[in-house]
Amino acid sequence: MVNFDNAATTFPKPDSVRQAVAAAITEYGGNPGRGGHDISLKTSEMVYETRKKTAEYFGAEPENVVFTLNCTHALNCAIKGIAETGSHFIISGYEHNSVLRPVSALSEKGAGFSVAAVSPDDNVTVRSVERLITPKTRAVVFTMGSNVTGQLTPYARIGELCRRKNICFIADGAQICGIRDINIKRDNINFLCAAAHKGLYAAAGTGLLISDGKYKLNPLIEGGTGSLSREASQPDFLPDSHESGTVNTVGIMSLSAGLDFVKSIGTDNIYRHETRLCGLFISLLSRMRGVMIYRKNGARYLPIVLFNVRGMSSEELAAKLNEKGFALRGGLHCSPLAHRSIGTLPDGAVRFAPSVFNTEKDVYALAAAVGGFIRG
Amino acid sequence: MCSVCERRRRSSERKFIMKNYIAAFASYTIAGKAKNALEINGYEARLIRTPKTLSAGCGYSVVTNAGPECFTKIFDEAGVKYRAVSESR
């Protein structure tokens, strides 16, 4: 089976990640930050070193790196944690349900939200955000790159706009981390939400919420943190305020190995390799009649290609490709808002998302399979 | 290591006494950052569970051979705040 569904989660994982997961089970069995014995201290040190490594990779401070379950969890922490009574949010027209549903839930409690259209022209996108700002706007929540089409947004410029207007900027980095160089200070991001199990090649169940330290978030849950234990109130400092309960040490150790893997290859090299595969796939599909590729002139893309074959639903095409040994995802990709924006409702489309492990040979074979369905 | 700490270290060696300090922090993460900052500045530092005599509730401390005037400056520069401090031998 060849996996081209790496935008959902990367697979396979590097050998070093597999080894890290095994080591986490066999060598790092303590509960980090929960005791003074050597088993706990050894695990605590590993967690801290991973926190520091992650902070360095994204230009943050170690204490501002929160380990979460996934990117959705991180986005919920940021969105619900920053919300105040009557807060207004601005989101993009490309948002995943991990953003749409939290702001929709908040809007039922009085907070409203507006949707800014994403254009291939960055100036138009930034202006569309600016026009929606009201005195009640508390935060702008924007994907950095669409999980559906891969289209990049002008996130650093939107962050700069938010900084000028004193509005919190929450960036959904689910698809971009590990593929493009991200620095939260340079890119004007107040909260970066990321999925460590995608472009950072960590195990599933591992996400990141990274703060620049400017805004305080109310926690979603309270509980044991291993700190200030005699106090009934939750610690108000990161990361403890947002890490109640035992953290996912197996996932954290896999993230450490995943970051090393990405750094050893180089983010730019990963981006170039995957983008080359996308270019090849597009050129092969373009020769076929009845294939629709959803890309806009002038837009910049992460290595994702969204396509359909005329006369066949996306789910049907994905199922047929599965039978031929190719894993691709059809349907709505948990992003009905994005599919509405690009005009692929109600059936959605098929998403091609390579990883560093895919080859040109894989792409030629996939394109041949798609061509076979068209012919007959 | 700063000149004050270096003189203190030599003086301690002559008297066969090595005076260390314990700085208590609210969490392992803050203590870890403090430990790193001390090591970058050439001091010894290790993490321990905060002794009961130093702080109520859970927390971690850094044992260091840096003097108070030095570690205060280093912690300020690193942006970490200790909750309590005591001498340790």
Explained architecture:
The complex is a heterodimer of chains A (376) and B (89). With 376 residues, chain A is of the alpha/beta class. Chain A is 40% helix and 14% strand. In chain A, helix 1 packs antiparallel against helix 7 (249-265), helix 2 (38-58) packs parallel to helix 7 and helix 3 (71-82) runs parallel beside helix 4. The longest helix of chain A has 21 residues, at 38-58. The two termini of chain A are 23 Å apart. The model of chain A has no long low-confidence stretch (mean pLDDT 96). Chain B has 89 residues and is α+β, with helices and mostly antiparallel strands. Chain B contains 3 helices and 4 strands. Chain B has helices at 3-14, 28-40, 68-78; strands at 20-25, 45-49, 60-64, 84-88. In chain B, helix 2 (28-40) crosses helix 3. The two termini of chain B are 19 Å apart. The mean pLDDT of chain B is 86.
Quick summary of this structure?
The complex is a heterodimer of chains A (376) and B (89). With 376 residues, chain A is of the alpha/beta class.
CA-CA gap between termini of chain B: 19 Å
Widest beta sheet: strand line-up of chain A: 2-8-7-6-5-3-4
Round the Cα radius of gyration of chain B to an integer and report it: 12 Å
Query: How many strand elements of chain B?
Result: 4
Structural class of chain A: alpha/beta
Report the major sheet of chain B: 4 strands, antiparallel
Classify the helix fraction of chain B into a percent range. Answer: 40-55%
Order of helices and strands of chain B: HEHEEHE
| Quaternary organization | heterodimer
Q: Choose one word for the global shape of chain A.
A: globular
Number of helices of chain B: 3
Strand content of chain B: 15-25%
Strand content of chain A: 5-15%
Overall shape of chain B: it is globular
Spans of chain A with pLDDT under 50 lasting ≥5 residues?
A: none
Structural class of the helix and strand makeup of chain B? Answer: alpha+beta
Provide mean pLDDT of chain B, rounded.
86
Give the total of beta strands of chain A.
12
